[in-house]
Amino acid sequence: MSTSSVPSLTYFQGRGLGQFSRVLLSYLGIPYENITVTEISDALRATLPYGQLPIYRDGDFVLTQSSTIARYIAKKHNFMGKNLEEEFLVDQIVTAIHADIFPAFNNPVPEKLQKLYEKYFGSFEKKLQETGFLVGSSVTLADLYVYVGFDYIRFRGEAALSSELSDEKYPKIAELKKFFESNEGVAKYIKERPETKF
Amino acid sequence: MTKPTLTYFPVRGRVQFPRCLLEYLGEEYNFNEVKTISDDLRKQLLFKQLPLYQEGDFKIVQTPAIIDYISEKHDFRGKTKEERARAHQCLAGIMEVLDHCLGYSFKMDKQQQEKFRNESPIKKFFEGFEMVLSQNKYLASGEKETYVDLMAFVMVDYVTNLGLMPSGDYPKLISLKKHYESSPQLKKYLESRPQSNF
């Protein structure tokens, strides 16, 4: 277990659900300890409320559920929008990616995935074309989530029907990707992360 | 102030979570029951999905985002950032339980239900909630109840109704269920809600 004074994020070596918070912490320039494991040992399992990773530790404060971790960090660093309404508009996008898009990879059905991408990424693209940001008038966790989700599907390749998410079809989301990847912290993280299968 | 409106199908499904919350908090609201999603309604839906929560010009979808928004309005999310994050961590778990059950509960025969209860993918969540409640009075680990205690009741009530309660003993969750079932604020809704099997 980490004894460091900086927060730690524990997840498998792959990108998966750990990616959202890793990219977020890197983008916000928050130092953190990136702990990777190959399996959940009994000792680790005993500390996990639902037997699942990722887990985030900040001193004595322990948190699981990737969307909860990301929202907690974002809220702490004013990255959830400018007011209450914006916070919950961000939340609905974060929830959509976690609850609707990610589970679809478990049993991928090409026709279903295609429709799913059109429905969600189509709506994100439209919003970005209209206002430049997914929520409000500045970048928020919602934009970062859409970038990470989009990028992750492309990384997963044809098993995840990645060819559906082309720059031509989603030019504004592709711009979002460029925006985040030009951030110093994110660029450093991407350069250093290991090549993995998931 | 405008009375909020919740739009959903004539079943319990996802909408029972925000409905129970509004009932418990004593907030008047309109329930707009629809059999199908009309073209007009579809245009208002960010991801073409229900439930939809509307309050004046403010519209929000995704059940957890709706729950969080209502709770914030009523100061029912927890006192500190940490408490709110712990509540959200539990809510994310509750939504995973809901997703497991909603997907195929009404397609199961008695034998499949029995198998589900014994090898339940939701068991780890019930054990996690039970553990938190055996160490703390409330799920967010604060000194007062928050929305997530009520949401845990709705989860247990729903899973019981579907005949999918995982095997094992959950005295704290059962006690939580009894507590909210006897709540005068919920009585009317619990008696008049749709008798649907999902």
Helix proportion range of chain A = 40-55%
Q: How many runs of DSSP E, i.e. beta strands of chain A?
A: 4
Q: What is the residue-averaged pLDDT of chain A? A: 88
Mean of residue pLDDT values of chain B: 87
Distance between the termini of chain A: 24 Å
CATH topology annotation of the largest domain in chain B:
Glutathione S-transferase Yfyf (Class Pi), Chain A, domain 2
Low-pLDDT windows of residues of chain A:
none
What does the main sheet of chain B amount to? 4 strands, mixed
Count all strands of chain B and give the number: 4
Helix run count of chain A: 8
Gross morphology of chain B is globular
* Main sheet: strand order of chain A: 2-1-3-4
Main sheet strand line-up of chain B: 2-1-3-4
CATH architecture of the largest domain in chain A: Up-down Bundle
Organism (chain A): Dictyostelium discoideum
Modified residues (N-acetylserine) (chain A): 2
Pfam family, one (chain A): GST_C_3
Family (chain A): Belongs to the GST superfamily. Alpha family.
Structure notes:
The complex is a heterodimer of chains A (198) and B (198). Chain A has 198 residues and is α+β, with helices and mostly antiparallel strands. Chain A has helices at residues 19-28, 42-45, 66-76, 84-101, 110-131, 141-156, 171-181, 184-192; strands spanning 8-12, 33-37, 55-58, 61-64. Chain A folds into two domains: 8-77 and 184-192, 3-Layer(aba) Sandwich (Glutaredoxin); 84-181, Up-down Bundle (Glutathione S-transferase Yfyf (Class Pi), Chain A, domain 2), CATH 1.20.1050. Chain A contains eight helices and four strands. Chain A has a four-stranded mixed beta sheet with strand order 2-1-3-4, with helices on one face. Chain B is α+β, with helices and mostly antiparallel strands and 198 residues long. Chain B folds into two domains: 5-75 and 186-192, Glutaredoxin, CATH 3.40.30; 81-183, Up-down Bundle (Glutathione S-transferase Yfyf (Class Pi), Chain A, domain 2). Chain B has helices at residues 16-25, 39-44, 63-73, 81-104, 110-118, 123-135, 147-161, 171-181, 184-192; strands at residues 5-8, 30-33, 52-55, 58-61. Chain B has a four-stranded mixed beta sheet, covered by helices on one side.
